[in-house]
């Protein structure tokens, strides 16, 4: 096999990225200020420690949100082509939705959707 084209593309990409990074580093403005190393939260000065633990409920809520966002991303192309795919596609998506509803029911039962 002739890998000349592949090697040329990879080397060109590496050189181009390296050149862009070098130019950006050379012309970027620099200012060294002790305030730059402080934690920043919406312009409000922080009180106490800036590293603190969050309740696990926030993470569970975020994961559930992402799960249903991904569901939407998978369902949109299916909805566009559902008529051309036939009944097998309908059964596949019904099974997919059934699994997601089971996950939602489990999260609801465990109290992951309640703010206490």
Describe the structure.
With 116 residues, the chain is mainly alpha-helical. The protein contains 3 helices and no strands. The longest helix has 30 residues. The protein starts with a helix and ends in a 6-residue tail after the last helix. The model has no long low-confidence stretch (mean pLDDT 82).
Separation, N- and C-terminal Cα atoms = 63 Å
- N-to-C series of helices and strands: HHH
Principal-axes geometry comes out as flat
Q: Cα-atom Rg, whole angstroms?
A: 25 Å
Mean pLDDT: 82
**Count of distinct strands:** 0
Largest sheet: none
Topology readout:
Layout: H1 4-27, H2 56-85, H3 87-110
Descriptive key words:
mainly alpha; 3 helices; flat
Give a concise summary.
This protein has about 120 residues and is an all-alpha fold.
